[in-house]
Structures are given as C-alpha cells and as structure tokens.
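[step 3/7] fold_predict: job queued, chain A
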Amino acid sequence: MLKRKERNGSSGGDANRPALAALIVDDESDILELLELTLLRMGLEVDRAASVQEALRQLKANRYDLCLTDMRLPDGDGVEIVRHISAECPDTPVAVITAYGSMENAVAVLKAGAFDYLTKPVSLEQLRAVVKSALNLQPSKEAAPEGQALLGDSPAMRQVAAMIEKLARSQAPVYITGESGSGKELAARLIHQNGPRRSQPFVPVNCGAIPESLMESEFFGYKKGSFTGADQDREGFFQAANGGTLFLDEVADLPLAMQVKLLRAIQEKRVRKVGETKEEGVDVRVISATHQNLAECVDQGLFRQDLYYRLNVIGLRMPALREMREDIPLIARAILRRLAQQTGVAVPELTPEALSALEQYDFPGNVRELENILERALALCGETKIGADDLYLSPPAGVLSQTHEPGAKWPLQEYLDRVEKEAILEALDKTRYNKTAAAKLLGITFRALRYRLERLGIE
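[step 4/7] structure written:
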C-alpha cells in the first residue's frame, strides 16, 4: 500500500490533513537544494532522488502529488520516469527540467505524458507557476455554459471527448485540425475549462484577421511613443493570456517574419513589447488550429518547420459533421433550443422529413452551417414545426448546372443569378467556406463577395 506523509504542525492548516508531497529528481545537489527550499516554502513535503532507479523506488513506495525530474540522470533520462508515472500513477503530474535550449527534449517529454517542462537555469517564478498549475489539476465541477459543450454519442465524438479530457491535464501545446465550422475553438475552450488554467484568461486570436504591419504590436504589446499613434502603453495577446491559454486560430495565415518571433516567444516564455528594451516573462499555454494542411504548408515553404514541430506536440482532429450523421438530430435540437431561448420564442419541432434531410446533407460548413440553416428556418417558419422545405438546403455543387436548359434562360436576371450562385457555392466548397480564399478564387474583392452573398441569400 502506498504511503503518504501527514502534514506536520509547523506547515500550518489542519494538522490532521495529509500534506501535499512532491518528489524531486536531480543529480546536482545545488538544484535539489533550490527545488526543495522553494517547494517547502510553498507548503509541500519533499522527497529527493538522484537517479532514475532511486526515483522509481520512491514512486513505488509513496504517493506523490507532484514530481519534478531532471532530463539527464546518471543511469538514464527523465523520459523513463515520465513514462512510469503515466502508466502507474496517471494522477500525478510530472514536470521535466531540460537543458537550456533543448527544445527537442521538451517536445519528447511532453509527448511522453509530462505535464510541463522547465529550462535551466530554473526561474523561481516559472517554477512556482508550474507547481501551482500542477496542484490545481482537479477537473472543474461546474457545468459548461450553453453552447460550450460537446454534443453527440457517435464513436468519433466519444473519441474527441476522451482526448480533450487527457489534454486538459497537460500543459503541452495542442494542434487542432478540422474543416471550417467543425468546432476547433470549442475544443480549445473545453481543454482550457477542464484544466488547471480554467480560472485564468482564454484569449482567442484569429491570425488571418490581423494586418501584417500590426502583428508584432498585437501579439507582444507596445511602449508609449514607440510609433505614431502609440499614445500609451498597451499589452499584447501574450500578456492578456498570462497564466491562461492563448488560442491561435488559422495559425497557417501567419507570415514567415512573425513565425520567427512567435517561435522564440513560445520557446523562451518571454516577450518584448515594441519599443521596449527589456523582455518580460509570460506563462501561457498555446493551442493552435487551422483548416489547412500545415504539413503541406511546411513542404511549400510557407510555414517554418521548427514552429510546426513546436506547435504540433499533441494533435487533435475534429471530425466533420458528415462523419457523425447519427449525432445531427441531437445537435440540431440543442441549437434550436439555444436560438429559441435567445429570441424568446417557443422551441419548434423538427419534423421527421426535416431530420431526414439534415442527416442526408453533407454540410460543407459543418456545425456552423447547421446553425445558420436552423437560425434562418426559425426566423422564417411561422408554425411550431420546421419541415424539410423550411430548411432551404443548398443543392450539392454541380446540381444547378443540370437545370440550365434552353428554356431556363429567361427571365435573364434569374438565370444569371443562378449561374452566379452556382459559381460562388462551388468556390466556397473548394475553399471550405473560407470567404477570403473564395473571393480570391473568384477574382473579386472580399467586399464584393460579401455583397453577392447577401443579395443571393447565401448563408
């Protein structure tokens, strides 16, 4: 039976309550002294080990709330300890201390199951932050807000839910892939809400929506007077997310110059404001996402390989809606309840024909498109039921072209509208509903595309 020390009277609090215990593993006595003194001052009881085998013996004999281990040890490396803890003590978070600049080791231990890592020389500020995060790993008991929970019981959705639960217990960078509208930001929020950073900020950033000239100041902040219009100091996304999570959506849209600066900020955990001479430390977990194939972007020279490997420590793929058709009725009803509550109307019922039509539709825009379809149906439906005709589902690409018979060319405006709508839908389908990319494909401006979408009634 595993032992756990009792809290002694000198550490404060309830004398009968078990003390939080930590195991520190390092073969350098000065590092052990520093770690032990810091943890003792934080109210933890500490055991030491100077080798892999000694650490494994301690782990078999005692239960710990935290483990800090060096990467290089006389009889092995810290990955062995990480793997042992992941297999035998999955509730014990383990952080690894790596040599300065050895990012390959950091990625390796995170993939092996480490909670986080520290670089030498060890910063006491970062050490305390890691310890506090590790000891706050208990899952949140609060219910997720409406619209911020995973819905569905399909195999694909159950796999995603299990993966999110695992990722929430780690501090490793997560790379989320999936088509537009498949819920990548929702997954990132759930990872944050169920992890130790849940009480700290979650800052989402659409990398494709920031002008290149403003990127550095938006990400890292700026000093008053650093450029024209900088009339006061301002914090950036990293400072705003300090202690919490920074979600980089559409990360593939970052220009190469900004990728270099982002890589350094992630590796060093320090940023410098525009116009400032000193760097400041930041404690941020990075989650990134894109609908593009980032590996192909690397091959094409559009994305840095080193940043790709730094972001893609653990991958999470969000399934398309057509891959979990059995979940469509449940998701549709939940969306309708939320929309009806927001508009103050009674929740309409989806007829069997409507549900069947939804289940057979491919949803190139995924859940986001489903929500748009139901919002439109709720606004236009005058009854308490929504039928298949109320959904106005767009026909698959290519179907419209089959109706272009000679007699269908009049009235001329209706015919031209049909042709234009077909071309826009095909462009949206090819770009996975990325309107900026669709406008470029069509050879028109984004503003012109937006006008045509509104005029033709395309959601």
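[step 5/7] annotate
Residues 412-430 form the longest helix (19 residues).
Residues 9-134 form a domain with the Rossmann fold fold (CATH 3.40.50.2300).
exit 0
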